[in-house]
Specification:
The chain has 338 residues and is an alpha/beta fold. The chain contains eleven helices and seven strands.
Length: 338
């Protein structure tokens, strides 16, 4: 199957010229122009229908760029020793499993030309750059990430080479063309080394890369979910900080008050902790939590909590020391000086 070119008019011109020459060679009368035009239109329509349901053949890689469509995934050129039915099956498979892929299978890149380049370089430049810049290929996107996800796989049979290009959805996840050689190309190499399985080279490449992409996107989604959970936990904790701190302040204030009642002559932070500063910190934490500044709210809470804990530690030590001093005093009084 051969593409008719860029338009119906050009197809008609080609058919008329070719058919006229053909009829002259066999010495028959040329058919009327309207009839010939109708035949050419039917041929052109038949070609388009075949391309929509099966592989499309091409003469030069320019044909792919000019006739690319999101419904056509498989393009072939030359003798690949693969039946038409098998190629159609691959096109159907790509419809289901690689709707964002353009797969090009070529017997050889000899004679290919594009933008001043020839051979494999022409094909690779046309499909790696031309498709994205000149067709809707660049508009293909992954609904899960919203990123461009067009991908191209090329097999050069005679040259024994593969090429691959992947858009941002692949590049941003270490699945772009710079990871092709030695890593992403392994399924294709394995298929060709085990019996020259051209179709499996294409299918296994698409499957392996798409599977890796899905796994990475799922991992990103899970990380995002866990991040959201942690963020919500931080929000919930920050909302509780002010009330927790007020309870701690109240407890510290109560202990200090009791100590002053028992030991009226005591002075210093052990009996007069900095309640005013701690209360101010509680208000600061409440404001930070309201502003969604949860990290700073946590830091202020932790610092104030540590200060209150230090007060309790100092008070506990003083009470232990006071008991010891009281015992020493009792001992001295029970043994009067001679």
């Amino acid at each position: 199957m051969t593409s008719c070119g860029h338009s119906i008019a050009k197809c008609l011109q080609f058919c008329i010229a070719s058919s006229g020459a053909g009829y002259a060679n066999i010495g028959t009368v040329n058919p009327p122009l309207p009839l010939l035009s109708l035949l050419c239109l039917l041929t052109f329509s038949s070609t388009l229908s075949a391309q929509e349901s099966g592989p499309a053949s091409f003469y030069n890689v320019t044909d792919i760029v000019q006739n690319w469509s999101p419904q056509q995934h498989l393009w072939v050129k030359g003798n690949l020793n693969v039946s038409a039915s098998k190629l159609s099956q691959l096109e159907d498979w790509l419809d289901q499993h690689g709707p964002n892929w353009t797969v090009v299978l070529m017997q050889t890149a000899a004679g290919q030309k594009y933008d001043g380049k020839t051979g494999m370089s022409a094909v690779e430049f046309a499909l790696g750059t031309g498709l994205s810049n000149q067709t809707g290929f660049g508009d293909l996107s992954d609904p899960r990430s919203g990123q461009p996800n067009g991908a191209v796989f090329i097999l050069f049979l005679k040259e024994r080479k593969f090429s691959y290009f992947g858009a941002e959805a692949f590049d941003s996840r270490s699945l772009g063309e710079r990871y092709w050689v030695g890593r992403l190309d392994k399924p294709a190499i394995s298929a060709m080394r085990s019996g020259g399985r051209i179709l499996d080279a294409a299918k296994n490449t698409v499957s392996s890369i798409e599977t890796a992409l899905t796994r990475k996107i799922q991992e990103e989604s899970e990380r995002k979910r866990l991040t959201e959970i942690k963020k919500q936990q931080a929000i919930d904790e920050a909302k509780l900080y002010p009330s927790q701190l007020r309870s701690l302040i109240q407890e510290a204030s109560g202990r200090a008050t009791e100590l002053r009642k028992k030991h009226d002559g005591l002075i210093g932070p052990i009996v007069r902790p900095d309640i005013v500063a701690w209360t101010a910190e509680s208000e600061t934490i409440e404001r930070l939590a309201h502003q969604s500044d949860y990290n700073n709210a946590r830091q202020h809470f932790t610092d104030t909590q540590n200060a209150i804990s230090s007060f309790h530690g100092g008070l506990d030590q003083w009470e232990r020391s006071a008991d010891r001093f009281a015992w020493i005093s009792d001992q001295i009084q029970s043994h009067p000086a001679p």
